[in-house]
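Sat 14:20. Reprocessing the chain from the morning session after the first attempt stalled halfway. Input below, unchanged.
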Amino acid sequence: MITLHQSSRVLELQYSDGQHFRLPCEFLRVFSPSAEVRGHGPGQEVLQVGKKEVSILRLEPVGNYAVQPVFTDGHDTGIYSWDLLYEYGMKQDRMWAAYLERLNEAGASREPRPA
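Finished this time. Tokens:
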């Protein structure tokens, strides 16, 4: 089961094995599986900054195996398989800590840039 909570900007996932995850939209955006974020090979990842306020406008189904979120910042090329979302749920704390460390090392921020 999948539920998008627009007001809290969280994607809630319930798996048949009983695992339950709440993945923030910001987390999903900065870890998009798209080439735009991951690059085309190791070391080509692009650090995502200023995504604290990003939300998901809608989720597009991709067959029976994945969803493709459309984010409020216009990003819509990441396809998230159910297996990938499960992996993200299991590793969320470690992934988020590493992301915050990379932001800090780059002198960057989660805060959106002023318009």
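The mean pLDDT is 95.
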